[in-house]
Design brief:
The complex is a heterodimer of chains A (141) and B (285).
Chain A lengths: L3 E9 L8 E8 L11 E10 L5 E4 L10 E6 L7 E6 L2 E6 L4 E5 L9 E6 L3 E10 L9
Antiparallel strand pairs in A: 1-2, 3-10, 4-9, 5-8, 5-10, 6-7, 6-9
Chain B lengths: L1 E11 L7 E11 L1 E2 L3 E5 L6 E5 L5 E2 L9 E5 L5 E8 L31 E5 L3 E2 H12 L10 E2 L10 E6 L10 E2 L25 E4 L8 E7 L10 E5 L6 E5 L4 E6 L5 E5 L4 E9 L3
Parallel strand pairs in B: 8-9
Antiparallel strand pairs in B: 1-2, 3-20, 4-20, 5-12, 6-10, 7-8, 7-13, 11-12, 14-19, 15-18, 15-20, 16-17, 16-19
Classes of the chains: A mainly beta (141), B mainly beta (285).
Chain lengths: 141, 285
């Protein structure tokens, strides 16, 4: 079984005066439980334009609570360009140029797709990775 | 501006044939922060309910409650102060809006902090359940929340805590309301924090204050518990009108993400006494 670990390190020498900030958190990306690691990885790069509106980066299974993780990075170098990150109709946050996010994603609700939308003109390059517990292949047409 | 340096590392030797060794870093300029905080989450529900300590306990002398109040705020921010008046002492009737010369029972010069409050008229011999039921009817009154909160009837009197559940009749809106049980002067409110006690947004943990940061801010949250499928899950939600959960963070998991600051972010849990670790970094709102 695959073992994938994610570590976030957050440091700052000047955010909290007299007390340097140093956070390190590590988690192993398990499927439901603590014995089987996530085995499915969907990753890639893309480009967004404001004209394209909101697009679903990934659809939720909507079948059962599962452990999944989402990584998205806004690779733009233009500080005016950001990516709106949403789960279905709820805006989660605005991902600025050069910034990334990493969060768990429960697919238990079918209306829980991860959607992304470019703001400001031009093209915004992004990269993403989704670590998933399970995947259902689409039906043959 | 202070500089926040953040690095994400993803690694695996067996997820793919190629070793996964991914690392990305970013910097964020922030002026202030909550600091790295931990809070003990006790509320296990988004269901709003107002409870009394002992439903069948008689209140022989209603004047012992006269002038006491409780504040309730709906999900649009409409706040009402419900004030008890005594029928036996000619206090004003249900739904009356208190002005400077409103008779609340023993006096027609109510304290200034009661002016603007909504009268809940109670009687000697009422039980705590009866008082709660009377309050329930005034919440639904035209001068109460008038439908923005639907307060359900209280069950017949019983020994022990009894409650009134509050919901939102508007499709797509949440029933997460704010009952200020901590600052209420009403002596019968059950604010013990146990399963039968009053539960509202006040019992959730404020993670990010919408008034504290400009958009965007950065949020870091970690669940300090050990992993469990159904226990010790931390739920985060924005207090917009829908107040739907946006994140479930199980034991050991963390998130690092941008947040919008037009709404507060609140947390509750699946299991009482789950400790959340969190930090928000941002700039002046």
């Amino acid at each position: 079984m695959a073992t994938t670990t994610a570590t976030v390190g957050i440091t700052s020498a000047d955010l909290t005066p007299g007390m340097a900030l140093g956070i390190s958190a590590t988690t192993t990306l398990y499927q439901t439980g603590t014995t089987t690691g996530l085995e499915l990885l969907d990753m890639g790069v893309g480009k967004l334009t404001q004209a394209s509106g909101a697009d679903a980066l990934a659809e939720a299974l909507g079948t059962a609570d599962t452990s999944n993780y989402v990584y998205i990075c806004n690779n733009s170098t233009d500080v005016e360009q950001f990516i709106k990150i949403g789960i279905h109709d709820t805006l989660i946050g605005n991902l600025g140029s050069g910034e990334w996010l990493f969060m768990p994603w429960n697919m238990g609700d079918a209306d829980a797709e991860i959607n992304i939308e470019a703001e400001a003109s031009g093209t915004i390059p992004y990269e993403y990775a989704i670590f998933k517990s399970t995947f259902t292949l689409p039906a043959k047409t | 501006m202070a500089t926040l340096n953040s690095t994400l590392t993803l690694s695996s030797s067996d997820l793919t044939s190629d070793t996964l060794a991914f690392s990305t870093a970013t910097t964020f300029s922030g002026s202030h922060t909550t600091g790295l905080s931990r809070a003990n989450l006790t509320s296990v529900s988004k269901v709003t309910k107002l409870s009394v300590l002992d439903g069948d306990a008689d209140v022989a002398d209603a004047s012992t409650v006269e002038g006491q109040y409780i504040d309730i705020t709906d999900n649009h921010g409409l706040k009402k102060r419900y004030v008890f008046t005594t029928a036996d002492g000619s206090g004003a009737a249900d739904g009356t809006i208190i002005v400077s010369n409103t008779d609340i029972g023993s006096t027609a010069t109510p304290a200034s902090n009661l002016i603007g409050g909504i009268c809940v008229n109670i009687t000697n011999g009422d039980q705590q359940r009866d008082i709660l039921e009377q309050l329930r009817s005034v919440i639904n009154h035209a001068n109460g929340h008038n439908g923005s909160i639907t307060a359900a009837a209280v069950a017949s009197e019983a020994n022990g805590p009894q409650s009134c559940t509050m919901t939102n009749a508007v499709v797509g809106e949440s029933g997460v309301f704010h009952i200020d049980a901590k600052n209420s002067t009403w002596i019968h409110v059950d604010n013990t924090g146990d399963a039968a006690a009053t539960n509202s947004q006040q019992d959730h943990q404020l993670i990010s204050d919408k008034n504290a940061y400009a958009d965007p801010a950065i949020l870091y949250v970690r669940n300090t518990s050990a992993y469990h499928l159904s226990n010790n899950i931390i739920y985060l939600y924005y207090d917009n009108h829908g107040a739907e959960d946006v994140l479930e963070i199980r034991g050991g998991q963390f998130t690092y993400m941008p947040i919008i600051t037009t709404n507060n972010i609140w947390a509750y849990t699946s299991t009482a006494d789950t400790v959340v670790e969190f930090m928000v970094v941002g700039t002046d709102a």
